[in-house]
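Internal tracking record. Fields below are filled automatically when a chain is submitted to the structure queue. Please do not edit lines marked as system-generated. If the sequence contains nonstandard residues, flag them in the REMARKS field before resubmitting.
Queue: standard
Priority: normal
Entity type: single polypeptide chain
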Amino acid sequence: MIVNGIEEPRFDRIEGVADRELLVRDDPTDPRNRRISILLLD
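SYSTEM-GENERATED OUTPUT FOLLOWS
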């Protein structure tokens, strides 16, 4: 994202959420559960 023009000070939080916010609740090992959440400042 930095390479594409988003400056580093805009990043507020980056965290993995697969262990807390499952998209596929029946299968915790499903690849769709492996994702990150990125919060940017305006």
